[in-house]
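To: structure desk
From: M.T.
Subject: fold request, one chain
Message: Could you run this one when you get a chance? Sequence is below, nothing fancy, just the single chain.
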Amino acid sequence: MWASKQRTHKRKWTLSKERIHLLENASIVWNPKEKYSQDRWKQNFNIFAECLKENPNIIQTARLKYKEYSVGKFILQQRNANKNGSLSKEQIKLLENAGINWG
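Reply: Done. Structure tokens follow.
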């Protein structure tokens, strides 16, 4: 609740620069949804990379399962994100180094 109020004050420009600096030094997350999304992407990427490391010649379809994970769904999302230009250069590099087939 308190952190949420600090985010609101920052969004409304009612936090001083000093206060912002102090909060950032305390590692406040200004956009928790974005942070969750980034963390989730990294988790899914690690599963994808593990799958390809263990099965380098696997056909990368939308239905691909690895252990209990829908790796194919992740692959499809990354292909679409790449087409839409919404992947960062770092994400593209990681995916290509892992062996994604942009198919």
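Reply (cont.): Helices lie at 2-11, 17-25, 32-54, 71-84, 89-98. Let me know if you need anything else for the meeting.
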